[in-house]
Fold this sequence. Notes:
Blueprint: H1 2-58, H2 61-72, H3 93-96, H4 113-123, H5 131-136
Amino acid sequence: MSYAIMVGLSAFLVALFIGISRDFYRQKRTIKQLTSLKDQIAQLDKSNKELTDFLQYLESDAFVEAEAKTKMNLKKPGEKVVALQLNTSAVDNTVQQPMAQKKSVDTPHSPSNYVKLWWAYFFHRDISLSPQQHYDS
């Protein structure tokens, strides 16, 4: 009889230990999920604050004024605009020539600069040659 009680008590203790360990595992997993959700809430609150601040800036007079000045070249009444000229020694002479005097650099059959550069990059050729000249050689 005492042997049966010992086996029954052992089975009860094993079942109790398994139940407690499952509850402990669920509690750990729930705490981990809760921490993760709190981090997400903090990130979303921060993002929400940034978006709210940006929206307030978009609705502000400072934004409207900056956009009017930069995109539409407007100025306030009484405001003076100053245009600075670049150093002429650093600027190419072609910039200073009138448009009518400029000569076209590219001929109708001449590829543009980026085509020449890609051609040179992929085929390890001199960029002064056009693709047609590469085919002929």
